[in-house]
Amino acid sequence: MVRTDCTAETYLNWEREALDRHEYLNGIIRPMPGGTPTYNQILLNLAISLKLKLPKGIYQVFVADQGLAIPTYNEFTYPGVMVARKPIQMYQDIKDTIVNPILVAEVLFPSTADYDRSDKFQFYQSIPTLKEYLLIEQGFIRVERCCQHDADQWLSKTFADREQKMNIDSLDITLGIEEIYTDVELEDEPRLTVTEYFNLDNNSIEWHEYINCKSQIFSGKSVYVTEKCT
Predict the structure, then answer these.
(1) What pLDDT, on a 0 to 100 scale, did the predictor assign at position 187?
(2) What Å distances lie between residue 17 and 11, 111, 210, CA to CA?
(3) Which of 190, 119, 140, 129 is nearest to 38 (CA)?
(4) Of 191, 210, 118, which is closest to residue 156 (Cα–Cα)?
(5) 3-class DSSP state of 51
(6) Per-residue pLDDT at 230
(7) How far, in Å, CA of 14 to CA of 166, rounded?
(8) Which of 89, 100, 112, 212 shows its CA 20 to 30 Å from the CA of 228?
């Protein structure tokens, strides 16, 4: 169900009584996708790793049910995981909605992945304190780390190997990709678009070939796209 023409105040009051979580964007209320065992395992893994690595008393880790306000776009949402520096800043002194995350992580659903990568990322970039944004796939190993390079530019890097380590510069810690996917049942190998393949291959120390929407080790020196990915 989608509700329209609703004020932020009405949404916040209504949301406190709702049985399910909803996202608010400038007058429109939309239900958020339900969790899966894989989704919850990834969130748990990430939150535990962050909690164990961060210095005590300086940061707070939030998981799933903590509200986030994005005043620039009049949006209220529930990121998968957030890290904020203490003291935590609340939206208009509302105790269940914060405004100052340093890191936000989303575990992607097929129905919302494009939105998380595009419009929602744009909304997140308007948060003055935010420095890093993680997009984590559920069915296969792929984590995209987006970090603020300067006021107008964000850079991204993709990690698709369990053995890789990912620096979280804003928190001065390193996360292993294996830590995120511990005890997670994965699906088949990811299907890549041609653009994703070239981005991945350019960051690799080995040659790869692209066949049937998948990347595999290649010993030659040429790349052939043999099938269009739909």
Answers:
(1) 80
(2) 10, 26, 50
(3) 140
(4) 118
(5) helix
(6) 36
(7) 39
(8) 112
Contacts of 87 (CB under 8 A, 6+ apart): none
Quick one: DSSP state of residue 105? E
Nearest to 204 by CA among 155, 148, 146, 164: 164
d(CA 60, CA 54): 9
Report the residue count for the chain. Answer: 230
Note the Cα 112 to chain centre separation in Å.
Answer: 11
> Burial, 166: exposed, middle or buried (Cβ in 10 Å; 0-12, 13-18, 19+)?
middle
Rg value, the chain, Cα: 19
Any idea what the Cα angle at residue 62 is, between residues 68 and 71, rounded to 5°?
Answer: 10
> What tens-digit pLDDT sequence spans the chain (230 residues)?
577 789 999 999 999 999 899 999 999 999 998 789 999 999 999 999 999 999 999 999 999 999 999 999 999 999 999 999 999 999 998 889 999 999 999 999 998 999 999 999 999 999 999 999 999 999 999 999 999 999 889 999 999 999 999 999 999 999 999 999 999 999 865 556 666 666 665 655 555 555 444 544 444 434 434 333 33
The tokens for 177 are: 């990709």
pLDDT score recorded for residue 225: 41
Instruction: Please list, in sequence order, all residues whose beta carbon lies within 8 angstroms of the beta carbon of residue 33, skipping any fewer than 6 positions away.
Output: 109, 111, 112
Question: What tokens were used for 188?
Answer: 């088949």
In SS3 terms, 117-161 reads as HCHHHHHHHCCCCCCEEEEECCCCCCEEEEEEEECCEEEEEEECC
